[in-house]
Amino acid sequence: MNRPPPPLSMLFSRHTKRREFITLLGSAAAWPLAARAQQSERIRQVGVLIGVADDAQGQARLAAFHKGMLELGWIEGRNIQFETRFSGGDGSRARAYSAELVAMKPDAIVANTAPVISALQQQTRTIPIVFVQVLDPVSSGFVESLARPGGNITGFSSYDFGLGAKWLELLKDVAAGVTTVGVLRDPSIPGGSGALGAMQAVASSLKVELVSLDVREAVSIERGLAAFVGVPGRGLIVVANPGAIVHADLIVALAARYRLPAVYPIDFSRPTAA
User: Fold this and answer.
1) Does residue 108 lie within any of the structural domains?
2) How far is CA 63 from CA 67, 69, 272, in A?
3) Which of 44, 45, 210, 238 has the most neighbouring CB atoms within 10 Å?
4) Which of residues 155, 181, 200 is at a domain's end?
5) DSSP state, residue 191
6) Alpha carbon distances (Å) from 25 to 10, 16, 19, 119, 242
7) Pair 180, 125: CB distance under 8 Å
8) How many domains does the chain have?
C-alpha cells in the first residue's frame, strides 16, 4: 500500500530523537515516487534563516537541503513553501527576520549560527527550530544536552572543540617557526571559547603563545591584524563563527598581504566578487 511522505510534525517534533529523525529520513527516501505524490491539501510552510546570500558554500548547502526535502516528497509550491531570509551576519537583521518569520507561524524553521538561533529563541518557544553550524548548543542555552535537547530546538553541531588543538598542531607542522598565534574569533559567542580552550591546553607543549583577535566587524579585523603583525614568527587560526564566514575574503586577503601562515575552519577559497 502506498504511503505519503512523513508529516513535518514528525520530522521536526521536539519529542523526536535525532536518531529517530535520521532513521525517518532514510526510510522515507526509499518510498516510491507515486506514494510521495499523495499529499495533504494544506501547503506546509518552512522558514529558512541563514547567512550570506552570495556565499557559494551557503548556497550549496541550501540547494542540498531543498534537494533532500524534494527526495522526501516535499515539492515547493505543491505541498510546501519555503520562506528564505539572509541575515548577512548582521545581528539587527537576524532579529528583524526572526520576528518576521515567527509572525508567519510556519510549521518549522531551519537556521544556522548561534546569533541567528538566539534571535529565534527570543521570538518563540513553540515553533520547532532545527539548527546547523552551531559550535556549542549546550553552553549557548539552545538545548539541555546533546543527548536530550528538550524544548523546541534541536539540530546538528558541526564541530568538535578538540579540533582547536589539531588546528594549532597543523599550523606548527606547516610553519615550524611560528611562536605567536593570533586566534581570530568572536568573543560574544560562548561556543568559540571551547576551541580556544583546546588550543590553550596544548600551546605550552608546542611553545606557542596565543593572542585573541576580534572578528565581529571588518574594521576590527583589519585593525587587529595590522597591530598583530610586524614581528617574525606570527601565525593565524580562524575559529568558525558567522563573522569569519561573512568576512572570509577580507581575512584571506589580509593573511596573504601580511604573509601569515593560516589555518581556516572551512574552505575559504570561495569565488570573490569582481
Assistant:
1) yes
2) 6, 10, 20
3) 238
4) 155
5) T
6) 10, 12, 10, 28, 28
7) no
8) 2
- The three cell numbers locating residue 242: 558567522
Provide φ and ψ at 237, rounded to 5°. -125, 130
Give the chain's mean pLDDT.
Answer: 82
Nearest alpha-carbon partner for 119 in 101, 104, 143: 101
Same-domain check for residues 24 and 51: yes
Give the CATH number for residue 254. 3.40.50.2300
pLDDT value, residue 192: 61
User: How many other C-beta atoms can be found within 10 angstroms of the C-beta atom of residue 208?
Assistant: 20
Q: For residue range 181-205, what is the model confidence (pLDDT) as tens digits?
A: 999 988 776 656 777 888 999 999 9
With respect to residue 138, please indicate whether it lies within any of the assigned structural domains: yes
User: In this structure, is residue 1 part of a structural domain?
Assistant: no
Is the entire prediction scored with pTM above 0.70?
Answer: no
* Range of the structural domain that residue 149 is part of: 8-155
Burial class from Cβ neighbours inside 10 Å (0-12, 13-18, 19+) for residue 134 reads buried
